[in-house]
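Quick one, T. Sequence first:
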Amino acid sequence: MRCLFGLFMAPRRRGRERGRALPVSWLFLLLGYPDYVAIIIFLICETLGSFSRVIVLSKISKFNRHVFYKQVILKILPPVLAAFFICILLNHYISGWIGLVLSVLVTTIVYCLLVYYFGLTQEEKNSMHGVLNSIVSRWKQFAKIK
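Structure tokens:
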């Protein structure tokens, strides 16, 4: 949803709209492109931004980029591609706002499950369980108070 709310901004125009910027994804939606184009734009911009940050940070902190790509990017790439294709498939069969909302929800759920099962190590899964258990216990305590 970050792509729809303006993470990536178009260049600012001079004149009356000075100081405002339109999200690039909104521009494509206003031009009549399908809904999933906003997600494609987000993925392209986020990928370019991530790779450029890795390059800059690797020069500053002198860490090995290739190890990072192997341990992080290659584990995350299959869930990203699967979620992307599921989003396109859903958007092909269901259109309009309902299709957009449904594709966002289903894509998010599928992505989270795939990252959990294929992208995390056992140590990361255990850490995640600890965080989720603490959140659930806080909710239970909050529910008892009311």
